[in-house]
Amino acid sequence: PAAVPAPFSRDSAIALPRPLTSADLMGEASGEGLRVAYQGCPGAYSEAAAKKAYPSCETVPCEYFETAFQAVEKWAADRAVLPLENSLGGSIHRNYDLLLRHRLHIVGEVRLAVRHCLLANRGVKIENLRSAMSHPQALAQCEQTLTQLGIEHREAVDDTAGAAKQIAEENLQDTAAVASSLAAQLYGLDILAENIQDDADNVTRFMMLAREPIIPRTDKPFKTSIVFSLEEGPGQLFKALAVFALRKINLTKMESRPHKKRPLRVADDNSTPLKHFDYLFYVDFEASMADPNAQNALSNLKQEFATFLRVLGSYPTDVTEA
Predict the structure, then answer these.
(1) Which CDD domains match (predicted)?
(2) What residues are labeled active site?
């Protein structure tokens, strides 16, 4: 006999999932209820980027970049916000490698203006300083200013906010941190100088990562990120990139990285065999994967030229002020 359905009860109704509302979707946009992982200590620029991307989110500091990837994969966080490139320092190569190693999807980007400050313990004057501590890129971005201030020594640490924290905890009197004004507030430090970066146009581009991709659209500017490899031969890269040029798709970024699983390729031209690097190519282009033009370009690339191709994400372009 057919199973008799259980009688309806108020408790079972409460357990049923409720339909999504427009308020839920607004919450997703603001980050309400989202846990967002970033690399660094509280007060890091990555935390500021997370708050810009998801203003109402709960931020989750992580010791390493890879820890942030793992936090999302293991459901300890819903998103990760990680730096990809800086207008002065260039690409953060570690994160390009991690994008390939992990299976997370890029679901957005955010650009953040980096404004470095010189932070020290209360009562310390600039003339007392002998050393500056910060992330290597932050130190490089302020090299000329630090030299002009008479600060001779540099000490590299994992992140800018971590430098501020260490100086406060150890009550260092001859060392300053290069970090954000927020880090000064969090760790009780004085700001001795503001905007000490050598170039005023200092912007870092961050990527937002999630376990699932978003549905691409065509009603707003979208960007797509891919990675691919090619057979060796004259003009192979030129031919591969032509699939975009012929369809008038603009490329905004291109980065090559040695293929870690196939680091060397042997070329035998009937003389002495030559060994050289085998490369992966990371490319960003201005089109949505919902656009048939972009779909045709990638289909052409995959069928005719690429030995490997993976779409890392198709996501809205950040058009806000950095």
Answers:
(1) ACT_CM-PDT, PBP2_Ct-PDT_like
(2) 204, 206
